[in-house]
Give the backbone structure.
Amino acid sequence: MSNSRNIALNVLLKIEQDDAYSNIALNNAIKENKLNQLDASFVSALVYGVLEHQITLDYILRQYSKIPIRKIEIKTKIILRLGILQLLFMDKVPESAAVNESVNLAKKHKLQKSSGFINGVLRSITRAEVKYTLPDKSDKIRYYAIKYSVPQELVSLWLKSYGEENTEQLLKSLSGRTSICARVNTLKTDREKLISELSKQNVKAEEVSFLPNAITLENTGSVERLQSYRNGLFHIQDVSSQLCVELLEPNPRQIMLDICSAPGGKSMTAAQIMGDRGKIFACDMYSHKLRLIEANAKRLGITSVVTMLRDGAKGNKPLVLADRILCDVPCSGLGILSRKPEIRYKDNLIDNDLPDLQYKILCKSAENLAVGGRLVYSTCTLNPLENNSNAARFLSEHPDFYGVKFQLPKGIMRAFDEKEYEITLMPHTANTDGFYIAVFGRKAKN
Protein backbone atom coordinates (compact mmCIF):
# COMPACT_ATOMS: atom_id res chain seq x y z
CA MET A 1 0.00 0.00 0.00
CA SER A 2 3.00 2.34 0.43
CA ASN A 3 3.37 2.56 -3.37
CA SER A 4 -0.35 3.40 -3.52
CA ARG A 5 0.27 6.44 -1.35
CA ASN A 6 3.03 7.59 -3.68
CA ILE A 7 0.75 7.19 -6.70
CA ALA A 8 -1.95 9.19 -4.91
CA LEU A 9 0.56 11.94 -4.16
CA ASN A 10 1.60 12.15 -7.81
CA VAL A 11 -2.02 12.28 -8.99
CA LEU A 12 -2.83 15.07 -6.53
CA LEU A 13 0.26 16.97 -7.69
CA LYS A 14 -0.95 16.79 -11.31
CA ILE A 15 -4.37 18.05 -10.30
CA GLU A 16 -3.01 20.95 -8.25
CA GLN A 17 -0.08 21.98 -10.45
CA ASP A 18 -1.31 21.10 -13.95
CA ASP A 19 -5.09 21.54 -13.49
CA ALA A 20 -5.56 17.91 -14.51
CA TYR A 21 -9.05 16.41 -14.25
CA SER A 22 -9.23 14.05 -11.29
CA ASN A 23 -10.93 11.19 -13.12
CA ILE A 24 -8.52 11.28 -16.07
CA ALA A 25 -5.37 11.64 -13.93
CA LEU A 26 -6.49 8.86 -11.63
CA ASN A 27 -7.49 6.45 -14.40
CA ASN A 28 -4.20 7.04 -16.21
CA ALA A 29 -2.22 6.38 -13.02
CA ILE A 30 -4.09 3.15 -12.32
CA LYS A 31 -3.45 1.91 -15.85
CA GLU A 32 0.21 2.99 -15.98
CA ASN A 33 0.98 1.30 -12.65
CA LYS A 34 -1.12 -1.78 -13.48
CA LEU A 35 -2.80 -1.69 -10.07
CA ASN A 36 -4.98 -4.54 -8.92
CA GLN A 37 -8.51 -3.78 -7.77
CA LEU A 38 -7.58 -3.48 -4.08
CA ASP A 39 -4.73 -1.02 -4.68
CA ALA A 40 -6.76 0.92 -7.25
CA SER A 41 -9.59 1.31 -4.73
CA PHE A 42 -7.15 2.55 -2.06
CA VAL A 43 -5.55 5.09 -4.41
CA SER A 44 -9.00 6.30 -5.46
CA ALA A 45 -10.06 6.66 -1.83
CA LEU A 46 -6.94 8.71 -1.06
CA VAL A 47 -7.22 11.00 -4.08
CA TYR A 48 -10.94 11.67 -3.84
CA GLY A 49 -10.74 11.81 -0.04
CA VAL A 50 -8.22 14.67 -0.16
CA LEU A 51 -10.16 16.51 -2.87
CA GLU A 52 -13.47 16.15 -1.04
CA HIS A 53 -12.06 17.23 2.35
CA GLN A 54 -9.25 19.61 1.37
CA ILE A 55 -10.62 22.74 3.06
CA THR A 56 -11.38 20.72 6.20
CA LEU A 57 -7.93 19.10 6.13
CA ASP A 58 -6.20 22.48 5.81
CA TYR A 59 -8.36 23.85 8.64
CA ILE A 60 -7.20 20.98 10.87
CA LEU A 61 -3.59 21.40 9.74
CA ARG A 62 -3.62 25.05 10.81
CA GLN A 63 -4.48 23.95 14.35
CA TYR A 64 -1.33 21.81 14.56
CA SER A 65 1.20 23.71 12.45
CA LYS A 66 3.11 26.84 13.41
CA ILE A 67 4.02 27.31 9.74
CA PRO A 68 1.33 29.08 7.66
CA ILE A 69 -0.08 26.76 4.99
CA ARG A 70 0.90 29.14 2.20
CA LYS A 71 4.56 28.68 3.19
CA ILE A 72 4.49 24.87 3.28
CA GLU A 73 6.14 23.26 0.24
CA ILE A 74 3.55 21.72 -2.11
CA LYS A 75 4.56 18.05 -1.75
CA THR A 76 4.84 18.39 2.02
CA LYS A 77 1.38 19.94 2.16
CA ILE A 78 -0.17 17.13 0.11
CA ILE A 79 1.55 14.46 2.21
CA LEU A 80 0.14 16.11 5.34
CA ARG A 81 -3.33 16.19 3.80
CA LEU A 82 -3.02 12.50 2.97
CA GLY A 83 -1.83 11.71 6.48
CA ILE A 84 -4.60 13.66 8.22
CA LEU A 85 -7.17 12.09 5.89
CA GLN A 86 -6.02 8.59 6.87
CA LEU A 87 -5.98 9.45 10.58
CA LEU A 88 -9.37 11.15 10.81
CA PHE A 89 -11.48 10.08 7.84
CA MET A 90 -10.39 6.50 6.99
CA ASP A 91 -11.28 4.08 9.77
CA LYS A 92 -9.50 1.05 8.31
CA VAL A 93 -6.02 2.63 8.20
CA PRO A 94 -4.02 2.05 11.43
CA GLU A 95 -2.64 5.22 13.00
CA SER A 96 0.89 3.86 12.88
CA ALA A 97 0.64 3.22 9.15
CA ALA A 98 -0.83 6.66 8.48
CA VAL A 99 2.06 8.35 10.31
CA ASN A 100 4.98 6.11 9.32
CA GLU A 101 4.07 5.86 5.64
CA SER A 102 3.63 9.64 5.43
CA VAL A 103 7.15 10.11 6.82
CA ASN A 104 8.52 7.46 4.44
CA LEU A 105 6.78 9.18 1.54
CA ALA A 106 8.50 12.45 2.42
CA LYS A 107 11.88 10.71 2.51
CA LYS A 108 11.16 9.01 -0.81
CA HIS A 109 10.74 12.47 -2.33
CA LYS A 110 13.92 13.68 -0.62
CA LEU A 111 12.04 15.96 1.76
CA GLN A 112 14.38 15.16 4.65
CA LYS A 113 13.74 18.43 6.47
CA SER A 114 9.99 18.06 6.08
CA SER A 115 9.86 14.49 7.36
CA GLY A 116 10.35 15.57 10.98
CA PHE A 117 7.71 18.29 10.60
CA ILE A 118 5.25 15.79 9.09
CA ASN A 119 5.96 13.29 11.85
CA GLY A 120 5.43 15.96 14.54
CA VAL A 121 2.10 17.19 13.16
CA LEU A 122 0.65 13.72 12.67
CA ARG A 123 1.88 12.44 16.05
CA SER A 124 0.27 15.47 17.72
CA ILE A 125 -3.06 14.58 16.11
CA THR A 126 -2.85 10.98 17.33
CA ARG A 127 -2.20 12.17 20.90
CA ALA A 128 -4.97 14.78 21.00
CA GLU A 129 -8.15 13.79 22.84
CA VAL A 130 -10.24 16.17 20.74
CA LYS A 131 -8.80 16.04 17.24
CA TYR A 132 -10.41 19.28 16.04
CA THR A 133 -13.49 21.44 16.51
CA LEU A 134 -15.57 23.06 13.81
CA PRO A 135 -16.31 26.81 13.77
CA ASP A 136 -19.30 27.99 15.76
CA LYS A 137 -22.65 27.41 14.04
CA SER A 138 -23.57 31.05 14.54
CA ASP A 139 -21.45 31.78 11.48
CA LYS A 140 -23.39 29.53 9.10
CA ILE A 141 -21.34 30.26 6.03
CA ARG A 142 -17.98 29.48 7.63
CA TYR A 143 -19.38 26.50 9.55
CA TYR A 144 -20.77 24.84 6.43
CA ALA A 145 -17.67 25.73 4.40
CA ILE A 146 -15.34 23.99 6.86
CA LYS A 147 -17.62 21.05 7.65
CA TYR A 148 -18.33 20.18 4.02
CA SER A 149 -15.10 21.53 2.48
CA VAL A 150 -16.51 24.03 0.02
CA PRO A 151 -15.55 27.69 -0.55
CA GLN A 152 -17.52 30.19 1.50
CA GLU A 153 -18.63 32.01 -1.65
CA LEU A 154 -20.39 28.85 -2.83
CA VAL A 155 -22.10 28.28 0.51
CA SER A 156 -23.25 31.90 0.44
CA LEU A 157 -24.60 31.56 -3.12
CA TRP A 158 -26.56 28.41 -2.34
CA LEU A 159 -27.98 29.75 0.94
CA LYS A 160 -29.15 32.89 -0.82
CA SER A 161 -30.50 31.08 -3.89
CA TYR A 162 -31.90 27.81 -2.55
CA GLY A 163 -32.38 28.23 1.21
CA GLU A 164 -30.69 26.46 4.11
CA GLU A 165 -32.45 23.10 3.85
CA ASN A 166 -31.57 22.62 0.19
CA THR A 167 -28.05 23.94 0.79
CA GLU A 168 -27.28 21.47 3.56
CA GLN A 169 -28.67 18.58 1.53
CA LEU A 170 -26.56 19.67 -1.44
CA LEU A 171 -23.46 19.87 0.73
CA LYS A 172 -24.10 16.42 2.18
CA SER A 173 -24.35 14.98 -1.33
CA LEU A 174 -20.80 16.06 -2.21
CA SER A 175 -19.01 13.28 -0.30
CA GLY A 176 -18.62 9.75 -1.59
CA ARG A 177 -18.79 8.38 -5.09
CA THR A 178 -22.02 8.83 -6.99
CA SER A 179 -23.76 6.10 -8.96
CA ILE A 180 -22.69 5.37 -12.51
CA CYS A 181 -25.68 5.78 -14.81
CA ALA A 182 -26.08 4.52 -18.34
CA ARG A 183 -28.50 4.77 -21.22
CA VAL A 184 -29.53 1.56 -22.97
CA ASN A 185 -28.84 1.63 -26.70
CA THR A 186 -32.32 0.77 -27.92
CA LEU A 187 -31.04 0.44 -31.48
CA LYS A 188 -29.29 -2.78 -30.42
CA THR A 189 -31.01 -4.13 -27.31
CA ASP A 190 -33.54 -3.38 -24.57
CA ARG A 191 -33.19 -2.71 -20.86
CA GLU A 192 -34.09 -6.19 -19.65
CA LYS A 193 -31.67 -7.90 -22.03
CA LEU A 194 -28.85 -5.52 -21.17
CA ILE A 195 -29.31 -6.00 -17.42
CA SER A 196 -29.13 -9.77 -17.98
CA GLU A 197 -26.05 -9.42 -20.17
CA LEU A 198 -24.28 -7.22 -17.62
CA SER A 199 -25.09 -9.69 -14.87
CA LYS A 200 -23.11 -12.33 -16.78
CA GLN A 201 -20.17 -9.90 -16.67
CA ASN A 202 -20.54 -9.59 -12.85
CA VAL A 203 -21.95 -6.06 -13.11
CA LYS A 204 -24.97 -5.19 -11.00
CA ALA A 205 -27.42 -3.16 -13.10
CA GLU A 206 -30.77 -1.82 -11.95
CA GLU A 207 -33.58 0.06 -13.65
CA VAL A 208 -34.19 3.73 -12.98
CA SER A 209 -37.91 3.56 -12.29
CA PHE A 210 -38.93 6.99 -13.55
CA LEU A 211 -37.03 7.09 -16.84
CA PRO A 212 -37.23 4.58 -19.68
CA ASN A 213 -33.97 2.96 -20.77
CA ALA A 214 -31.95 4.38 -17.87
CA ILE A 215 -29.98 2.06 -15.57
CA THR A 216 -27.52 2.39 -12.69
CA LEU A 217 -24.34 0.31 -12.61
CA GLU A 218 -22.24 -1.12 -9.77
CA ASN A 219 -19.02 -3.18 -9.73
CA THR A 220 -18.11 -2.13 -13.25
CA GLY A 221 -14.37 -1.72 -12.82
CA SER A 222 -13.16 -0.05 -16.00
CA VAL A 223 -16.31 0.33 -18.09
CA GLU A 224 -14.32 0.20 -21.34
CA ARG A 225 -13.28 -3.40 -20.61
CA LEU A 226 -16.89 -4.65 -20.61
CA GLN A 227 -17.86 -6.59 -23.71
CA SER A 228 -21.36 -5.09 -23.68
CA TYR A 229 -19.82 -1.60 -23.73
CA ARG A 230 -17.43 -2.47 -26.57
CA ASN A 231 -20.40 -3.92 -28.46
CA GLY A 232 -22.20 -0.60 -28.15
CA LEU A 233 -25.10 -1.78 -26.01
CA PHE A 234 -25.02 1.32 -23.78
CA HIS A 235 -23.29 4.60 -23.13
CA ILE A 236 -22.54 6.30 -19.81
CA GLN A 237 -24.87 9.20 -19.11
CA ASP A 238 -26.36 10.63 -15.93
CA VAL A 239 -30.13 10.53 -15.57
CA SER A 240 -30.22 14.36 -15.63
CA SER A 241 -28.77 14.41 -19.14
CA GLN A 242 -31.13 11.69 -20.27
CA LEU A 243 -34.12 13.64 -18.93
CA CYS A 244 -32.81 16.73 -20.73
CA VAL A 245 -33.05 14.90 -24.08
CA GLU A 246 -36.45 13.41 -23.20
CA LEU A 247 -37.82 16.91 -22.61
CA LEU A 248 -36.46 18.00 -25.99
CA GLU A 249 -38.80 15.37 -27.51
CA PRO A 250 -36.85 14.58 -30.69
CA ASN A 251 -38.82 12.62 -33.28
CA PRO A 252 -37.88 10.48 -36.30
CA ARG A 253 -37.12 12.33 -39.53
CA GLN A 254 -36.50 15.62 -37.73
CA ILE A 255 -33.42 17.83 -38.00
CA MET A 256 -31.70 18.47 -34.68
CA LEU A 257 -28.79 20.69 -33.66
CA ASP A 258 -26.63 19.83 -30.65
CA ILE A 259 -24.75 23.10 -30.25
CA CYS A 260 -22.09 22.20 -27.66
CA SER A 261 -22.16 18.47 -28.18
CA ALA A 262 -18.89 16.88 -27.01
CA PRO A 263 -18.48 14.15 -25.93
CA GLY A 264 -21.80 13.55 -27.65
CA GLY A 265 -23.85 11.58 -25.13
CA LYS A 266 -27.00 13.66 -25.62
CA SER A 267 -26.75 13.37 -29.40
CA MET A 268 -26.49 9.58 -29.03
CA THR A 269 -29.57 9.45 -26.78
CA ALA A 270 -31.51 11.64 -29.21
CA ALA A 271 -30.49 9.44 -32.15
CA GLN A 272 -31.76 6.38 -30.30
CA ILE A 273 -35.08 8.06 -29.47
CA MET A 274 -35.37 9.01 -33.16
CA GLY A 275 -34.68 5.44 -34.23
CA ASP A 276 -31.54 6.73 -36.00
CA ARG A 277 -33.86 8.29 -38.59
CA GLY A 278 -33.34 11.99 -39.22
CA LYS A 279 -30.24 14.16 -38.97
CA ILE A 280 -28.38 15.40 -35.90
CA PHE A 281 -25.64 17.99 -36.34
CA ALA A 282 -23.29 17.60 -33.37
CA CYS A 283 -21.21 20.78 -33.07
CA ASP A 284 -18.09 21.63 -31.10
CA MET A 285 -15.25 24.11 -31.47
CA TYR A 286 -12.45 21.54 -31.00
CA SER A 287 -11.54 18.89 -33.58
CA HIS A 288 -10.31 16.34 -31.02
CA LYS A 289 -13.69 16.49 -29.29
CA LEU A 290 -15.48 15.90 -32.56
CA ARG A 291 -13.42 12.75 -32.98
CA LEU A 292 -14.76 11.54 -29.61
CA ILE A 293 -18.31 12.06 -30.86
CA GLU A 294 -17.57 10.16 -34.05
CA ALA A 295 -16.01 7.29 -32.10
CA ASN A 296 -19.06 7.13 -29.82
CA ALA A 297 -21.44 7.05 -32.78
CA LYS A 298 -19.43 4.29 -34.45
CA ARG A 299 -19.38 2.14 -31.31
CA LEU A 300 -23.13 2.56 -30.84
CA GLY A 301 -23.92 1.90 -34.51
CA ILE A 302 -25.44 5.35 -35.07
CA THR A 303 -25.40 6.89 -38.55
CA SER A 304 -27.67 9.94 -38.16
CA VAL A 305 -25.10 12.04 -36.26
CA VAL A 306 -22.92 14.38 -38.32
CA THR A 307 -20.14 16.35 -36.62
CA MET A 308 -19.43 20.00 -37.35
CA LEU A 309 -16.54 22.22 -36.25
CA ARG A 310 -18.25 25.36 -34.99
CA ASP A 311 -18.03 28.04 -32.28
CA GLY A 312 -21.48 28.27 -30.68
CA ALA A 313 -21.02 31.84 -29.45
CA LYS A 314 -19.70 33.27 -32.73
CA GLY A 315 -21.88 31.17 -35.02
CA ASN A 316 -18.97 31.12 -37.47
CA LYS A 317 -20.56 28.44 -39.63
CA PRO A 318 -24.16 28.66 -40.90
CA LEU A 319 -26.66 26.03 -39.80
CA VAL A 320 -29.87 24.72 -41.30
CA LEU A 321 -33.23 25.48 -39.73
CA ALA A 322 -33.89 22.79 -37.16
CA ASP A 323 -36.95 21.20 -35.55
CA ARG A 324 -35.05 20.62 -32.31
CA ILE A 325 -32.07 22.42 -30.77
CA LEU A 326 -30.14 21.32 -27.71
CA CYS A 327 -28.14 24.15 -26.18
CA ASP A 328 -26.18 22.50 -23.36
CA VAL A 329 -23.73 25.31 -22.69
CA PRO A 330 -20.29 25.44 -21.01
CA CYS A 331 -20.82 26.15 -17.31
CA SER A 332 -19.15 26.32 -13.90
CA GLY A 333 -19.97 22.65 -13.17
CA LEU A 334 -21.34 23.24 -9.67
CA GLY A 335 -23.81 20.39 -10.17
CA ILE A 336 -21.11 17.74 -10.62
CA LEU A 337 -18.82 18.51 -7.68
CA SER A 338 -19.28 14.96 -6.39
CA ARG A 339 -17.87 13.61 -9.68
CA LYS A 340 -15.19 16.28 -10.12
CA PRO A 341 -14.43 17.58 -6.61
CA GLU A 342 -11.45 19.64 -7.78
CA ILE A 343 -13.84 22.11 -9.44
CA ARG A 344 -14.66 23.66 -6.06
CA TYR A 345 -11.09 24.99 -5.69
CA LYS A 346 -11.01 26.90 -8.98
CA ASP A 347 -10.53 30.64 -9.01
CA ASN A 348 -13.52 32.78 -10.02
CA LEU A 349 -15.91 29.92 -9.32
CA ILE A 350 -18.92 32.22 -9.27
CA ASP A 351 -17.72 35.68 -10.30
CA ASN A 352 -16.97 34.97 -13.97
CA ASP A 353 -18.06 35.76 -17.52
CA LEU A 354 -19.90 32.48 -18.09
CA PRO A 355 -23.47 33.85 -17.94
CA ASP A 356 -22.71 36.29 -20.76
CA LEU A 357 -21.06 33.57 -22.87
CA GLN A 358 -23.96 31.22 -22.27
CA TYR A 359 -26.48 33.87 -23.25
CA LYS A 360 -24.61 34.56 -26.50
CA ILE A 361 -24.65 30.87 -27.36
CA LEU A 362 -28.36 30.61 -26.53
CA CYS A 363 -29.33 33.63 -28.64
CA LYS A 364 -27.16 32.61 -31.58
CA SER A 365 -28.55 29.07 -31.45
CA ALA A 366 -32.18 30.24 -31.29
CA GLU A 367 -31.81 31.89 -34.71
CA ASN A 368 -31.78 28.42 -36.26
CA LEU A 369 -35.01 27.10 -34.70
CA ALA A 370 -37.95 26.64 -37.04
CA VAL A 371 -41.40 27.99 -36.13
CA GLY A 372 -43.14 25.29 -34.11
CA GLY A 373 -39.79 23.86 -33.03
CA ARG A 374 -38.43 23.22 -29.55
CA LEU A 375 -35.19 24.38 -27.91
CA VAL A 376 -33.74 23.12 -24.63
CA TYR A 377 -31.25 25.26 -22.71
CA SER A 378 -29.33 23.32 -20.07
CA THR A 379 -26.32 23.38 -17.76
CA CYS A 380 -24.75 21.02 -15.21
CA THR A 381 -24.41 23.80 -12.65
CA LEU A 382 -26.31 25.20 -9.67
CA ASN A 383 -26.09 28.95 -10.07
CA PRO A 384 -29.23 31.00 -10.90
CA LEU A 385 -27.14 33.52 -12.85
CA GLU A 386 -26.21 30.77 -15.31
CA ASN A 387 -29.63 29.17 -15.20
CA ASN A 388 -32.93 30.86 -14.31
CA SER A 389 -31.68 34.40 -14.99
CA ASN A 390 -30.46 33.55 -18.48
CA ALA A 391 -33.73 31.78 -19.30
CA ALA A 392 -35.86 34.69 -18.05
CA ARG A 393 -33.74 37.22 -19.93
CA PHE A 394 -34.01 35.19 -23.12
CA LEU A 395 -37.81 35.14 -23.01
CA SER A 396 -38.01 38.84 -22.19
CA GLU A 397 -35.82 39.75 -25.18
CA HIS A 398 -37.25 37.25 -27.69
CA PRO A 399 -41.03 37.75 -28.02
CA ASP A 400 -41.35 35.03 -30.65
CA PHE A 401 -40.25 32.44 -28.08
CA TYR A 402 -42.24 31.11 -25.14
CA GLY A 403 -41.66 28.76 -22.23
CA VAL A 404 -43.00 25.23 -22.72
CA LYS A 405 -44.75 23.69 -19.72
CA PHE A 406 -43.69 20.09 -19.17
CA GLN A 407 -44.64 17.18 -16.95
CA LEU A 408 -41.98 15.85 -14.57
CA PRO A 409 -41.61 12.07 -14.24
CA LYS A 410 -42.82 10.52 -11.01
CA GLY A 411 -39.88 10.31 -8.62
CA ILE A 412 -38.56 13.80 -9.36
CA MET A 413 -39.51 16.64 -7.04
CA ARG A 414 -38.96 20.36 -7.36
CA ALA A 415 -36.50 21.73 -4.82
CA PHE A 416 -38.03 25.22 -4.90
CA ASP A 417 -40.58 27.27 -6.83
CA GLU A 418 -39.64 27.85 -10.46
CA LYS A 419 -41.40 28.70 -13.70
CA GLU A 420 -43.36 25.89 -15.35
CA TYR A 421 -40.90 25.77 -18.25
CA GLU A 422 -37.79 25.09 -16.12
CA ILE A 423 -36.45 22.68 -13.50
CA THR A 424 -33.36 22.69 -11.29
CA LEU A 425 -32.50 19.07 -10.54
CA MET A 426 -30.70 18.33 -7.27
CA PRO A 427 -29.29 15.06 -5.89
CA HIS A 428 -31.67 14.98 -2.92
CA THR A 429 -34.83 15.78 -4.90
CA ALA A 430 -34.19 13.92 -8.15
CA ASN A 431 -31.35 11.47 -7.37
CA THR A 432 -29.37 13.00 -10.23
CA ASP A 433 -26.45 15.35 -10.69
CA GLY A 434 -27.19 19.01 -10.12
CA PHE A 435 -28.61 20.15 -13.45
CA TYR A 436 -30.78 22.86 -14.98
CA ILE A 437 -33.22 22.51 -17.89
CA ALA A 438 -35.40 25.14 -19.59
CA VAL A 439 -37.67 24.33 -22.54
CA PHE A 440 -38.63 26.92 -25.15
CA GLY A 441 -40.87 26.89 -28.20
CA ARG A 442 -40.98 29.26 -31.20
CA LYS A 443 -44.04 30.89 -32.68
CA ALA A 444 -44.47 32.99 -35.82
CA LYS A 445 -43.69 36.67 -35.40
CA ASN A 446 -46.70 38.94 -35.30
Notes: The two ends are 70 Å apart (CA to CA). Residues 174 and 337 are 6 Å apart (CA to CA). Residues 37-64 form the longest helix (28 residues).
